[in-house]
């Protein structure tokens, strides 16, 4: 027997409806990967299996500057103490060879007066190298070798002082110290500006001394695969910013919003709001400039991964004019608010400009509806308050119209007689 046909057509049945329902794209949770640049600007990169370690010793000064403070102080102290001990041993050998340690010798024949032991030789070495000269121990003209040793120790001491003090000075005046007061917003935003999707961040300088010739560079780091099958784990793509003017720098007097227009040349051109949250990319921001007070070039860095990019938001204004002075409220530096933004990619927005118009119209209608609801709620509240006030007035009027009669004992007796 042939199967009976259903009264309901197949396209309106449950299987047909399920097949025609729009399915949301399913994205797998991406594995948490280490970011290339940390939020504080440090490079999250480990160097392994370096065989040519001798290259670091060829540039000793840079190696000393790059060391941590505890190692630098240990090397600083060890270098000076070692040089004092080395020359103390040399002075003791000179005195021993000349016979100054013999107590029977007269004072006039000594190379160095009052050097009678290794301790006194060590004290004399310190006095020579740091040019203290207490006056008890001094060199004489009896020994030419002592005069030569004096010149050698002075030259060696000057070289050690120049290297060590220069290293300490460079560590205290490093350019990254100035970068500590150059701040970035914790989050980046994507919103519509001038009818284009834009990627925006906020930068600022906490010091009053300015950064001369400040420039901002943006790079997108992502893992890509070439048509030949080559995998590039760190593919850096330069991103053009709207404020990047050739041969001119940023005037970083107040916090600025750096804007990148997502156009055809942007690596974010094909990403929608949903795809952005599941993408594996990192936007690196580099701020460079010359410190006004020291003239040293400084660089501040940060990065934003997909979880730190908020779609459909913009930064709140933080610069206001108060009594003829512009005031910056840094407590709102990273605050963002929602903005009307299509969830589609910039490519779809360029192909269908009506999407932006429809989104703006929907937001305007929702805004008007919210205003109407607020107005109606206010009217209802005012009417309720008015009705409650009228009821209170009526009740009070009734209470005031009622008269209370007070009866005396005589009146009560007369009333009772009349009743009987």
UniProtKB/TrEMBL annotation:
It comes from Anabas testudineus. The record marks 161 as: Role in the control of polyamine-mediated channel gating and in the blocking by intracellular magnesium. Belongs to the inward rectifier-type potassium channel (TC 1.A.2.1) family. This is Potassium inwardly rectifying channel subfamily J member 8. One of its GO terms (molecular function) is ATP-activated inward rectifier potassium channel activity. It catalyses: K(+)(in) = K(+)(out). It holds the Pfam family IRK_C. Residues 182-352 form the Inward rectifier potassium channel C-terminal domain. Residues 37-174 form the Potassium channel inwardly rectifying transmembrane domain. The keyword Phosphoprotein applies. Residues 366-420 are annotated as: Disordered. GO terms for cellular component: monoatomic ion channel complex; plasma membrane. Keywords: Ion channel, Ion transport, Membrane, Phosphoprotein, Potassium, Potassium transport, Transmembrane, Transmembrane helix, Transport, Voltage-gated channel. InterPro entries: Ig_E-set, IRK_C, K_chnl_inward-rec_Kir, K_chnl_inward-rec_Kir6.1, K_chnl_inward-rec_Kir_cyto, Kir_TM. Residues 392-420 have a biased composition (Polar residues). It is found in: Membrane. It is a multi-pass membrane protein.
């Amino acid at each position: 027997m042939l199967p009976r046909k259903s009264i309901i057509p197949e396209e309106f049945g449950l299987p047909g409806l399920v097949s025609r329902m729009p399915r949301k794209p399913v994205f797998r949770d991406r594995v948490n990967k280490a970011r290339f640049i940390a939020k504080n600007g440090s490079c999250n990169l480990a160097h392994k299996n370096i065989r040519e370690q001798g290259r670091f010793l060829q540039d000793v000064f840079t190696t000393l500057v790059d060391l941590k403070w505890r190692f630098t102080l240990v090397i600083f102290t060890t270098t000076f103490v070692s040089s004092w001990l080395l020359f103390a041993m040399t002075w003791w050998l000179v005195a021993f060879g000349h016979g100054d340690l013999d107590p029977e010798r007269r004072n006039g024949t000594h190379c160095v007066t009052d050097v009678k032991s290794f301790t006194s030789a060590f004290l004399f070495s310190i006095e020579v190298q740091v040019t203290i000269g207490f006056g008890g121990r001094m060199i004489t003209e009896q020994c030419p070798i002592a005069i030569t040793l004096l010149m050698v120790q002075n030259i060696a001491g000057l070289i050690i002082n120049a290297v060590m003090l220069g290293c300490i000075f460079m560590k205290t005046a490093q350019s990254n110290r100035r970068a500590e007061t150059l701040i970035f917003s914790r989050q980046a935003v994507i919103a519509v500006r001038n009818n284009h999707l834009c990627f925006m961040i906020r930068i600022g300088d906490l010091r009053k001394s300015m950064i001369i010739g400040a420039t901002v560079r943006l790079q997108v780091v992502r893992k890509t695969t070439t048509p030949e099958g080559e995998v590039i784990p760190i593919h850096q793509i330069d991103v053009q910013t709207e404020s990047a003017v050739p041969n001119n720098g940023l005037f970083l007097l107040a916090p600025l919003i750096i804007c990148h227009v997502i156009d055809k040349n942007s690596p974010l051109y094909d990403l929608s709001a949903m795809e952005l949250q599941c993408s594996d990319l990192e936007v690196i921001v580099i701020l460079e400039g010359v410190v006004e007070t020291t003239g040293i070039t400084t660089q501040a860095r940060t990065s934003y991964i997909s979880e730190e990019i908020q779609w459909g938001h913009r930064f709140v204004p933080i610069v206001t004019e108060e009594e003829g002075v512009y005031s910056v409220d840094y407590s709102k530096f990273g605050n963002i608010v929602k903005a009307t933004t299509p969830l589609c990619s910039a490519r779809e927005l360029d192909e269908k400009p009506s999407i932006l118009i429809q989104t703006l119209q929907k937001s305007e209608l929702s805004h008007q509806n919210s205003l109407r609801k607020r107005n109606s709620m206010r009217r209802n509240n005012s009417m309720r308050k008015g009705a409650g006030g009228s009821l209170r007035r009526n009740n009070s009027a009734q209470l005031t119209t009622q008269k209370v009669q007070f009866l005396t004992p005589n009146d009560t007796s007369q009333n009772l007689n009349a009743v009987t």
